[in-house]
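Dear Dr. K.,

Following up on our conversation at the group meeting, I've run the structure prediction for UDP-N-acetyl-D-mannosaminuronic acid dehydrogenase from Alicyclobacillus tolerans. I'm pasting the input sequence below exactly as I used it, so you can double-check it against your construct before we proceed with anything downstream. Let me know if the numbering doesn't match what you have in your notebook.
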Amino acid sequence: MQSISVVGLGFIGLPLAISFCEKGFRVYGIEVDTAKLDWLKRGVSYVQEDDQGIPLDKYLQKHLQQETFIPTDRMEEAAKAVDTYVVTVGVPVSGTGDMVYDYLDSAMQNIGSVLKKGDFILLRPTVVPGMIEERLIPQLERVSGLKAGADFHVAYAAERVAEGRAMEEFRTLDVVAGGLTPACTERAVQLLQQLTSGTVHVTDLRTAQLAKVVENVQRDVNLAIINELRQVAEAHHVDIYELIRMTNTHPRVQLLMPSVGVGGFCIPNAYYYLRASVDNPHMMPLYDTARRVNSDVPNQLVKDAATALAASGRSLQGAPVAILGLGMKDGSNDTRLSPPVDLAKVFISSGAHVRAYDPTIAEHSFPFQVESPEVCLDGAQVLVVGAWQPPFEALPWRQLLEKTNRPYIIDPRHRLKGYLS
Ligand SMILES: NC(=O)c1ccc[n+]([C@@H]2O[C@H](COP(=O)([O-])OP(=O)(O)OC[C@H]3O[C@@H](n4cnc5c(N)ncnc54)[C@H](O)[C@@H]3O)[C@@H](O)[C@H]2O)c1
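The predicted structure tokens came back this morning:
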């Protein structure tokens, strides 16, 4: 049985580690957060994923029992058994748009300290293009005293999966891989081909890093088109959904659907990574604008709600606002850079009284969270469907909606349309 280490057991690393286990690998999962390790050792997943109707917890418990998944914070323990490290530790972006390199730097130092000749490091986080050659490899070399490309191999293959469908997509999606040398690339191809039935597309290291951020920036731009179109449609008093349907009958047009904002760890951060990788600050005016348009969506939605309430003689000041689902998108319990959370904050700063319900997110994660849909919806004058969570499917919506008070509804994906009279 081949043993590997997956470093970082977050939203991506945990389902990735378990997906390797399912492919017959023994995986040493390295995680520095001891609270997460405690959950894992008890067989409880903090990441909401399932595969073929089976929740991640069940896979986790199976592989703990079979000792094919070994969660630990001890890199030395893994180093004795593995020659391959798959790194999923990311680079957060601060509120001021600066990169927080500390986590990935420390992962490099930990790996560097146990690195042996012949080892292979496959990096999978989204990164500032160029930082692998300029920042990460020099750290590995300095700490290990070994030479990249000669003594050990390094390659990059960004993770492309979507939270909520991660395990299926690890198995099926094409990936782009680029190594420091052809031999490094070959190690990446050999490993990835054991995980995915998709194609492993081979390129150079820099193109591989750029390809990932460009994929996300392209989505940012496409989503900005729709978020801007919302106001254009309103100005013409036309239904944006009808407009999108008609426009998409053109074979070369593919407009996306509106949303409550563009968030999550991936799309907004990719813009900042790309921006940090170029010297000229004026090089990307279109991408700058798209990011600005998308990050302004919560403000626009709150403004629209205030206007709608005023039209019916009401005020946002003190108005009960119900938000259903706080994940960064449907089916996700990740609240980092989450549009529904941003929306809640803008409503609160506009004087509204926000109550949010999301059974997939730990209680008391936010001061405006409430424990039941009844409390959330009671008297609501504004109703927002932020992220549609799997447990919502079973709720008695018709009955619950009777608790609201003629609400202005923000439900861009029409989740509640069938229940509204
Ligand atoms: N979340 C997504 O949907 C998604 C999709 C595609 C790509 N990605 C990329 O994948 C990467 C990981 O994202 P994520 O959402 O899993 O992040 P995450 O924050 O959930 O996971 C990172 C994990 O690494 C751990 N960690 C930090 N420092 C460590 C160290 N030195 N050693 C071991 N573990 C350490 C953290 O405690 C955390 O559990 C990011 O670059 C992200 O951009 C994410």
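Two things stood out to me. The CA atoms of residues 233 and 240 lie 6 Å apart. The chain has three domains: 3-204, 212-276+280-292, 298-419.

Best regards,
J.T.
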